[in-house]
Specification:
231 residues, Rossmann fold, seven-stranded mixed sheet
């Protein structure tokens, strides 16, 4: 059963799918690819086996993983039909033979312990039930496997935190209105980050769900966090 938030998030990402890659590049100066590379390197360090990339969007993280380890089967899953269509239209996705499927991160259609690794980029703050989503990621990861997440987070450095706040809350929605023609989606983005857990709080939640060896590193002057955890 879907919720009001889930329906809103699905519709929002379907609306912006056609401009999603362009907006990511504009907002980050192209640095989002480097952040995904960090997450991809953490992922390919997992034991042999298939990888599930949740909220795959236009499949950039899935492609980064395949580029590092072409032997891996990497499946991209998303519950936004628009995002899946945008991913399927990318020549790189077809060339890398990344299977794409529709799936809800809170009710994954896989058996326990199916994957050597489960990844996500910019998923967690959009979940209606964060603890349940993390538990579901753990469920489909095999013993000894790992989960890797990439998220935007609030910086804490005095001065830079205020500058980032102005950029994120004023500039990003304006660019979203001009380029993606959707101010609402790019107003939701900084608001959702403000409501989300700190990296330390997310680490604690992951441990509470049952993960071991939980660690994280900050990137981009503290505005990005990559978490890694083992099952």
């Amino acid at each position: 059963m879907t919720t009001r938030k889930a329906d809103m998030v699905r519709a929002m990402f379907t609306r912006i799918a056609g401009r999603y890659d362009l907006m990511n590049s504009l907002m980050t100066g192209g640095r989002h690819h480097a952040w995904r590379q960090v997450a991809a390197r953490e992922t390919v360090a997992a034991k042999p086996g298939a990888v599930l990339d949740l909220a795959t969007g236009t499949a950039d993280l899935a492609l980064a993983i395949r580029a590092l380890d072409a032997r891996r089967v990497v499946i991209g899953a998303d519950f936004s039909e628009g995002m899946l269509r945008a991913a399927a239209a990318k020549p790189a996705v077809r060339a890398a033979r990344v299977p794409l499927l529709g799936a809800d991160a809170l009710a994954l259609p896989f058996r326990d312990g199916t994957f050597a690794a489960v990844t996500s980029a910019f998923l967690l703050r959009n979940l209606d039930d964060l603890a349940a989503g993390i538990a579901e990621m753990r469920r489909v990861t095999m013993p000894g496997g790992r989960v890797v997440t990439l998220e935007i987070t609030r910086p804490t450095t005095p001065g830079w935190s205020q500058i980032f706040g102005v950029y994120f809350h004023r500039v990003v929605p304006a660019v979203g209105a001009m380029v993606a023609r959707d101010r609402r989606a790019y107003t939701y983005l900084p608001e959702s980050v403000n409501r989300f857990l700190t990296p330390a709080e997310l680490s604690a939640l992951m441990r509470g769900v049952g993960f071991g060896d939980v660690s994280y590193r900050r990137l981009a002057l503290g505005t990005i966090a990559v978490h890694t955890a083992t099952v």
